[in-house]
Amino acid sequence: MTEKKIAIISTGGTIEKTYCELEGVMQNEVSNLDVMLAQLELEGIEVVRVPLMNKDSLDMTARDHDLIARTAGTMAEAYDGVVIVHGTDRLAVTGERCVEAVAELDAPIVLTGAMRPFALKITDALQNLVEALLAVQLCEPGVYVAMHNRVLRFPGVVKDRQHGRFVRAGGDG
Amino acid sequence: MTEKKIAIISTGGTIEKTYCELEGVMQNEVSNLDVMLAQLELEGIEVVRVPLMNKDSLDMTARDHDLIARTAGTMAEAYDGVVIVHGTDRLAVTGERCVEAVAELDAPIVLTGAMRPFALKITDALQNLVEALLAVQLCEPGVYVAMHNRVLRFPGVVKDRQHGRFVRAGGDG
Amino acid sequence: MTEKKIAIISTGGTIEKTYCELEGVMQNEVSNLDVMLAQLELEGIEVVRVPLMNKDSLDMTARDHDLIARTAGTMAEAYDGVVIVHGTDRLAVTGERCVEAVAELDAPIVLTGAMRPFALKITDALQNLVEALLAVQLCEPGVYVAMHNRVLRFPGVVKDRQHGRFVRAGGDG
Amino acid sequence: MTEKKIAIISTGGTIEKTYCELEGVMQNEVSNLDVMLAQLELEGIEVVRVPLMNKDSLDMTARDHDLIARTAGTMAEAYDGVVIVHGTDRLAVTGERCVEAVAELDAPIVLTGAMRPFALKITDALQNLVEALLAVQLCEPGVYVAMHNRVLRFPGVVKDRQHGRFVRAGGDG
Questions:
Q1: pTM
Q2: Could you tell me whether strands D143-147 and D109-112 are parallel, antiparallel, or unpaired per DSSP bridges?
Q3: Spatial separation of the C-alpha atoms in residues C133 and C129, rounded to whole Å
Q4: Which positions in chain D touch B17 (Cβ < 8 Å)?
Q5: Any bridge partners for residue D83, and if so which?
Q6: Which of B44, B130, B165 sits opposite A43 (nearest CB)?
Q7: What is the pLDDT of residues A75-114, one digit of tens each?
Q8: Model confidence over D24-37: pLDDT tens digits?
Q9: Which chains touch B (3 or more CB pairs under 8 A)?
Q10: Inter-chain residue contact C19 with A121, CB threshold 8 Å
């Protein structure tokens, strides 16, 4: 069986936050994406990790968004799919940037993140990662967000901060 | 946002097995599918539970496979997608039966199960359920198995018992 | 079998912190002590919950420490043992106050807390609670801290902030 | 701080059972006691592992019970305490054997086990192990079972099979 090659670009965000005992806070310090991946059964795909940065997306600069979008675009030429793990607050900014940055995509780019860190007992991190890894295999080339069992295509996706989820801009869903 | 209506037919299998303290064995007695669903964030879909049976699939009769296939076919007329939770040992039998039983499908039917019960700390149950719930939204009408991050379309899918996974018959993958 | 009656006074601290999705921080807002207790098998004891406050112990005033000590002293007259769930930063202050406040104890008072909130996957919360509940049955009347499989008796116990644990003052152990 | 040296003799039982995917059953094959210990914060004690056997206690012979009792007795001379991890069905047989085998104990021997394997999400394994490790430090020399937050001293302890717990023989508790 030919394996699909999937690149995962990690940029930080809530999903990767861990607990600092000294400060008593959740922070982006070490990546736990490898621990997450180790808990999944992944058959038929080969996952390549691309650790780009580890930031709360509220701290991202225009240059950060740009760097992520260009890296994703380049990876989409070499891989069968690209997953971007991202903070949800500014995920849509990077999503739109990906659409602008890349004229014609060879493979899908799927962004995902989480409302609750993987380090917590109750978390949406693993679910969202599973969804991104499957959506990137099933969707046609394009830029998407996969989270909470819903896949939406950019452009025109925004975060609904009140409910902690992504929706189509304009409210038609 | 219009919600998709997804029917989940539960039939038992390893994924739903729970531990009996008295006997010290894993068995299909009570369904834990509702507990699994409660641990997921499901947006944009409305899930309807159809508890059909709770059996180890090795105990299924030809009539059981038939009943499941016909129920799935009927549900596919009324819902936007149908997920079947099933024991993996005879999952492919039901999958093929679904293909035979239904002339023309209006919606996708996605079968899934698990190699390790949800009741265990280390389990593929939740991952597989998430994949089935997403695949049923992304795939065109047809009969599929979604498990371990891979979606395969019936007919022509068999269980690779040695590795505990599903593959295309004939070995081309 | 006669049941021992144990009072659990909850005051907050890291052990009870939960995650706030909106702010992305761990905070003392709702108590999760009942969830913790529900995960334990407790035979031969009857646990009575006394929710006193829900504070990071760094925010405790002299009056708070006093209130906790006096409440514990009173409870020790009516119950077979008293457990105090407390933030570790100022736990020793309350411990010493308990010794001063109560001339003669009828039952043991055992303080405990955690370095990592119960809400996290990796946490010492449940272990420490189990230890406090057992120590309060096995120790003679007195004031103790039980944490990380070690029981130390007040007075003369301090927090070793560097290692996140309690030790005897003076360093002799 | 002087460390106490605790020997843990593992003999198998439900607590150590793991899931066999091929057979779909829980069995005593590999020990997971090291994984359990790695999840605990143990300060002030040094734990030495003595893997003796890995059996369902229903399969133990008189010779097995004898071997465990004599090993525990010997260890109690060299260590500050001995914990025996054991199947609950015949735990009381080994407990009584320990009392008979050892004329005068230098250190406490604490037996423990579990009604639900550590491999399960919902399990009493870690709680019971924590209790045994604490009881062995707090109790005077003697033979005990620690489980479900209760410590009972041999001789005269039996398993109450109906409730899955240990009680004093004769029913006085």
A1: 0.95
A2: parallel
A3: 6
A4: 24
A5: D8, D110
A6: B165
A7: 999 999 999 999 999 999 999 999 998 878 999 999 999 9
A8: 899 998 888 999 99
A9: A, D
A10: no
